[in-house]
């Protein structure tokens, strides 16, 4: 009887396994985005929209697809999810540069293809245009520039190439910031400084007007405090000395 019971139990277990609607394996199944079956970079320009199309390959059944922009999931309409799915980026702008769009298989997210947007655009400059600085103080001119590909920068003063003087000028540069520092400005530093940014897609310029003002007279605080104390004490002594006269009047 034990043998029969055990055989019956095994038979029922196998029957449950056979009846279970197990999902088909994803081995051999792959995705492609714009005919790329592996991750790739897509170069594009500002403005015109771009379309990304994700397609399921080697599948014998309907497969649901998901799209992600970075870590955030993109909302798709019901008719745009099965076996083929399209998304449109319109218009393309600077914030899309370097962003990764990923198409994934819904039931096995390890099956995926990613595309990184390489949005190329000419230099766009910004920064404070006029700077008033007192003589002998430090001045910093900051030229903010966004561009792709990265651009090269040259500084000019009054339309002439600026010659950097040791211990007087300092130059600092990152991918988006070009900073010129002038230590202890002098009257001769007065003028218009131009930030020229050169890129294969075009050039950009921005003018910065440096106004060096006269040094403001510095009043010694100790002397002012001492004078106030002396005046106050003198007034008090004068009042005390004349208190009898004051009382007689009242």
Structure commentary:
By secondary structure, the protein is α+β, with helices and mostly antiparallel strands. It has two domains: 25-120, Immunoglobulins (Immunoglobulin-like); 128-213, Immunoglobulin-like. It has three helices and 16 strands. The protein has helices at 2-19, 221-241, 243-249, and strands at 30-33, 40-45, 50-57, 65-69, 72-73, 84-89, 100-105, 108-126, 130-134, 139-148, 152-157, 160-161, 169-173, 177-182, 191-199, 202-213. The longest helix has 21 residues, at 221-241. Mean pLDDT is 86; it is low at 13-20.
Q: Label the structural class.
A: alpha+beta
How many domains is the backbone divided into?
2
Number of continuous helical runs: 3
Rg estimate, integer Å:
38 Å
Q: Summarize model confidence as the mean pLDDT.
A: 86
Report the helical percentage.
10-25%
Strand content: 35-45%
CATH topology term of the largest domain: Immunoglobulin-like
CATH superfamily of the largest domain: Immunoglobulins
General form: elongated
What is the CATH class designation of the largest domain? Answer: Mainly Beta
**Could you name the ranges where pLDDT drops below 50 across 5 or more consecutive residues?**
13-20
Question: How many runs of DSSP E, i.e. beta strands?
Answer: 16
- Identify the CATH architecture of the largest domain: Sandwich
